[in-house]
Amino acid sequence: MFEQFKDKFPLDNNTWDTYVSYFKRLEVPARTVLLNEGETSKKLFIIEKGCIRVWFNNNGKDITTQFFFENNMVASIESFRKSTPSQVTIETIEPCVVWWIFKKDLDSILEAIKSTPRLRDLFINGIFERTFEYMKHFISFIKDTPQQRYLNLIKEKPQIILRVPQHYIASYLGVTTVHLSRLKSKLAKEK
Amino acid sequence: MFEQFKDKFPLDNNTWDTYVSYFKRLEVPARTVLLNEGETSKKLFIIEKGCIRVWFNNNGKDITTQFFFENNMVASIESFRKSTPSQVTIETIEPCVVWWIFKKDLDSILEAIKSTPRLRDLFINGIFERTFEYMKHFISFIKDTPQQRYLNLIKEKPQIILRVPQHYIASYLGVTTVHLSRLKSKLAKEK
DNA sequence: CCGGTGCAATAACATTTGTTATCAAATTGG
DNA sequence: CCAATTTGATAACAAATGTTATTGCACCGG
């Protein structure tokens, strides 16, 4: 699982093995909650196999904000960083194999690598990239219609269309399931 | 202008003065463009007086995504960090007094302070907070109606309502000027 | 003081999107 | 293999939001 990342980190074998040893493997069925809304996030997950969604409850309806697939890191990022109650639930969609690490262990690793300029900058860059991703997704919500967002999704993240049930996608796009169904049939006719 | 920030930074007077000396003062009228969409951002601004909006062109209509006021830092953040063409325009709304610094100078300051753990962590924390702000704004776009977003804005950022022309606010809320007008008159009647 | 321009309100109408209900197909668990 | 549940499509109607056009007001620069 971790070998593929190894060459990105300028660490000697011993240090690397120590870091990796903090991670634990976990196998769970579909629809398993890994973190509940309101709980404080203490674990970061990396997906070996399967997919996961992040969602929150809005007046009884759940709204999915993100999807994650193989090799993605998943956490309720604000809750994890600040140790505050999570605004969101993290739940598997498919049966999953994940690796997880305790926040306290990750914190100590991060603190250690921050003194290595190259790793520190890799870390900072990672946060920036995450922000930019968010900004991009946000802007598409302002400028595009739901139909356009759906077309973008097909083009840019086809694995979401292929692997995720449609009602999760609907809330991710900001529309009802009924409306997404309508859009699909309209687009099919136009072809 | 900078005295108010000084005690937050554990720097000796000399270092502080050197850093501050990189900033230049600029006075501009309302509706002045500080960065054009498509240009690469080379300057970061800090507002001493006035307000600024960030917007982009979407099929001939401009969409405002952010407002900034006194003491805020403003830049096209992705363009500034990556030296890529900016997706947005930065423009004054009121006559403004701003201080600005060249990217290369700021980069050298940042590189220097990153070796001071306390400043480095302050910096990292700043990026996280920026991301969390974005996430919050984004989530309100998914879960709230335009009317609710308008009410939130009145409560949480009243200076935007007071100082910014309404048609900029409309696009910030994701509605047309006509619809915002309608919402206002509806809310006035309900009282 | 005049004329242009920017800004906001309003009306009438069009379009998009949500709501509720029903049905059928697919999937899952026993 | 069957029953229950999940998922997706569709229709009919309601509500929200966009479009276009008109009007009036305020402000600014000659």
Indicate the topology.
The structure is a homodimer of 191-residue chains.
Chain A: H1 3-6, H2 13-21, E1 24-28, E2 33-35, E3 43-49, E4 52-58, E5 61-68, E6 73-74, H3 77-82, E7 89-92, E8 96-102, H4 103-113, H5 117-143, H6 146-156, H7 158-163, H8 166-173, H9 177-190
Chain B binds a DNA duplex (30 and 30 nucleotides) through helix 9.
Characterization of this structure:
The structure is a homodimer of 191-residue chains. The first copy, chain A, is elongated and about 60 Å long. The first copy, chain A, is built from 9 helices and 8 strands. Helix content of chain A is 50%, strand content 23%. The model of chain A has no long low-confidence stretch (mean pLDDT 91). The first copy, chain A, has a domain of 111 residues: Jelly Rolls. With 191 residues, chain A is an alpha+beta fold. The structure holds a DNA duplex (30 and 30 nucleotides).
Radius of gyration of chain A using CA atoms only: 18 Å
What is the oligomer described by this structure? homodimer
| Euclidean distance between termini CA atoms of chain A | 42 Å
SSE-based structural type of chain A = alpha+beta
Name the helicity range of chain A. 40-55%
Which residues of chain A sit in consecutive blocks of at least 5 with pLDDT less than 50? none
Q: Would you state the CATH class of the domain at 3-113 in chain A?
A: Mainly Beta
Name the chain pair whose interface involves the most residues: A-B, 27 and 27 residues
Number of helices of chain A: 9
Biggest beta sheet summary of chain A: 4 strands, antiparallel
